[in-house]
Amino acid sequence: MQYKNAFVFEHPLIQHKISLLRDKNTGTKEFRELVEEVSMLMVYEFTRELPLEEIEIETPLAKTVTKVLSDKPIALVPILRAGLGMVAGIQNLLPKTRVGHIGLYRDHETHQPVEYYSKMPQDIASSVAIILDPMFATGGSAVAAVDYLKNLGCADIRLVCIIASKYAIDKMSEEHPDVPVFCAAVDAEMNEDMYIVPGLGDAGDRIFGTK
After folding, report:
1. Which of 28, 97, 106, 170 is catalytic?
2. Is 170 annotated as catalytic?
3. Chain CA centroid to CA 120, Å
4. Would you list the domain boundaries of the chain?
5. Inter-residue contact 197 to 186 (CB < 8 Å)
6. 106: annotated active-site residue
7. What is the pLDDT of residue 111?
8. Is the overall model pTM greater than 0.90, yes or no?
9. Any catalytic annotation for residue 23?
């Protein structure tokens, strides 16, 4: 299924790793490594439109003009705490990225996001801001993160998640149609506790071994 504001990865390698992530028998170490690997594989698509600039270099044979990423800053903004699990994989390919942090938790009664912490790079307003959150369920936390970044002056914001619900994709499209969503899988349902079904459980607990 296609979504106007979402790119869903269909690469066989990513889909294979998603199956391993979903398996309840996958242990903490392997789960954490899989989150990093899937995040790294997703870099190729969500950076497709990053600006390039030409430079002159000299190969062992001749001088030539080639292209490199421009100096436009890139900031990873993981939503605490589960988003932290995606940072290392992305920085393997984008080592110069800065990392901002935003702490949001979902109230278990209202299911609404509550902010408790934030710390951003000084140049966040001029950065490509990439929000990281493995599970894009109700969309509340990610939409709140976009609201926060836009209030700081960010104009280029992208959301990268591992599993999304159709509900959350539609919510982002309604609230922030200018923010593209990149995800490895879309699940159609959520349970009464607003967890994605079949999903993969609580990503934070499985990454950090807290349950």
Report:
1. 106
2. no
3. 16
4. 6-208
5. no
6. yes
7. 66
8. yes
9. no
